[in-house]
Amino acid sequence: MIIQKVRIKDFRIYKGLNEIAFTPRPELVWKRKNIHLISGENGFGKTTFLTSLVWCLYGKLIVDVDEEYKRAVYEAGGYKKYAANNLNRSATDPNEYSVSIILSEIFIPSIPCQEVKITRIFNLRKKEDQVEILIDGSSNELTKEVGSEIFINDFILPKEIAKFFFFDAEKVAALAEMKSTEAKQKLSRAYSEVLGIKKYIDLRNNLTDLRLRFTRDSATEDDRKRFTVLQKDLSKLRELVNFSKEKISNLQEEKESKKRQSEHYQEKLIREGSTLSVQELVDIKKLRDSLSEEGKVIKLKLKELLELAPFAISGGKLKQTKDQAEKEASGKANRLDLISIKKKSENITLRLKENEFSDAELDPKVAAHLLKAVDNYILREFSVQKKDHKVLLEFSETEHNEFIAVWENLKYSYSNVFKKLLKAEKVNKIAFNKVVRKISNAESKEDDLLIQEIKRAKSSADERTQEIEKKIAELNQDIGSFQREIAVLSRQISELNKRIRLDESDKQKDVEAEELINYLDNFIEKLKADKKGALGRRIKVELNHLMHKIDFIDAVDIVIKGEILDINLYDSAGQSISKESLSKGEQQLYATSILKALVDESNVKFPIFIDSPLQKFDKKHSKSVIKDFYPNISDQVVLLPLLEKELSLEEFQLLLPNISSTFLIKNKNSDSSEFEKVVPPKLFDKYNEYVYQHQDLQ
């Protein structure tokens, strides 16, 4: 299958009709030139081109192709809004846009076919898609009978495996980082789809349903009634589950819409100068009161410090007072009361007279003279100390200690504490005034009718969002309850099925169906084992080949347990190789090998589109991908690189022998891009010329 042409009309950045043809030049048809290259600056429309193809094929089913598309649809508020947003802002026709894909070399059983043209149109008035499929220029009964979606899914490309044919090379590395159960389940489902296993599983399930119909039709009257009731109950429960899921989907869309409304109202409040909600206003008033109390405490501390300010100002006098106080304290320690001195002097002379002088038998006149001399010396000595320390303050011990404490405070910490308090008061005052102004502005706006209305609308949107979240949680609980009831009813139907006797007319059909189911069970297990082994061998060969390490991976073991698929790598020593230990480039090579193996095993002949090629590859690995991966992954490969960043000139030269055609996306303005076909060897010259001209225009 080959894509001959793509026509894009007013889809996003592609204004008007834009056409790109992948038909190779006649002289290159016989050569292996299967690569087409489309390049442009970021924002010019490379990813948009890829999206247009996926949308053309699947329309609203685009959500089943990849999580990125699913997220984009949900964020837009549903498919209709997503599709409406795809219209070019300067569209030539404001009512619709379209994308067409023309395919050749396509095989449709029992229908001769040279060309298939698929066109999807979105009508903005009706807000719905219209799909036209022409086979060799005419409509066909097959497409009308099965419907366009089934035709595309069955005969062109199943949507479940489309992600392996339209992919971002940078994001494909996520395949190497499968850790969660959900990721492994997704790979398992893709594995079943790509390798065709799901078709046999669906066939087995259809045969099982057929046996149930046989059972229902062949039951006794009582069993038939009970069976019918159980089937109806089961059917109702399943409808309830689907209905609840549909309600959740609608609620999710409404929730996203309400969120956007709330954001829109918030932007309006900002523009109107009012951004405070009622609760925020209450909170900021509490902050004002807190700052006020803090300011009072600071002022009280400052007042206490200001009482000491006169002492700090008269520092010299205070020092003299401190020196005097210390002298007086020192003198006081050595000075005695004068009366006490005289009494003690008399006691001393009396003891000398009675003891010392008496024993010495001194002359009374001499003794009297000596005693008087001693008395004079004692009095004179203490009289001198008293004269040296003139008493001015006469502090008590407590007063002296308090004065010294004040002195020490003023000398060592007063200045720093005072400065800190002044700074704290300034910061507090600024913060307090700012909060007061904010409250004043908010309160002045409270009477504004426009702001009141916007706030009511925003509050209503927020409340509805909360209601929706609560309702979704309730619906999920209901779904869980329904599913438990479904499990119970299914077991009851199964037990009843064992007791029901089949009519003779259906017995043989039931036996054959049972035999086919048993055969399919064995066949599916064998097919899984065969495909598993073949896929493992392909991954090993591709990985060693791309890495240029023949013995890097000795074995690849694919483990399937129920709905979980895991891939294990082993070296020549039988040791498990941790995928986390691989470099980012090696991880991408590993993911690329999985991709190549899955595509090869699928036998689906469809073109491969790769956005952002060669991301995270070093030069050595880039060469491997250019020489061995891109030329061989499909009969038609379309690469969308950013020149000189995702594809260098040197890498382009390596790719050139396999290039059939090259295109540049040129941008006239923010709403208009177009394709220009370029002779492959001149691509970089044309690109640099365009970039130079574009910079001059800017």
Summarize the SSE layout with pairings.
Elements: E1 2-11, E2 14-21, E3 35-39, H1 46-58, H2 67-76, H3 79-84, E4 96-104, E5 115-123, E6 128-135, H4 141-146, H5 148-156, E7 166-168, H6 181-194, H7 197-217, H8 221-271, H9 278-306, H10 309-313, H11 315-334, H12 338-360, H13 364-388, H14 397-412, H15 414-446, H16 449-499, H17 504-547, E8 555-561, E9 564-570, E10 576-577, H18 584-602, E11 608-611, H19 619-629, E12 637-640, H20 649-655, E13 659-669, E14 672-678, H21 683-697
Parallel strand pairs: 3-12, 3-13, 7-11, 11-12
Antiparallel strand pairs: 1-2, 1-4, 4-5, 5-6, 8-9, 9-10, 13-14
Helix pairs in contact: 7-17, 8-16, 9-15, 11-14, 12-13, 17-18
How would you describe this structure in keywords?
698 residues; alpha/beta; 6-stranded mixed beta sheet; 5-stranded antiparallel beta sheet; elongated
Kindly describe this structure.
The chain has 698 residues and is α/β, with parallel strands linked by helices. 61% of the residues lie in helices and 13% in strands. It has 21 helices and 14 strands. The strands form 3 sheets. It has a 6-stranded mixed β-sheet with strand order 7-11-12-3-13-14, with helices on both faces. Strands 2-1-4-5-6 form a 5-stranded antiparallel β-sheet. Strand 5 (115-123) and strand 6 form a beta hairpin. Helix 11 packs antiparallel against helix 14 and helix 17 (504-547) packs antiparallel against helix 18. The longest helix has 51 residues, at 221-271.
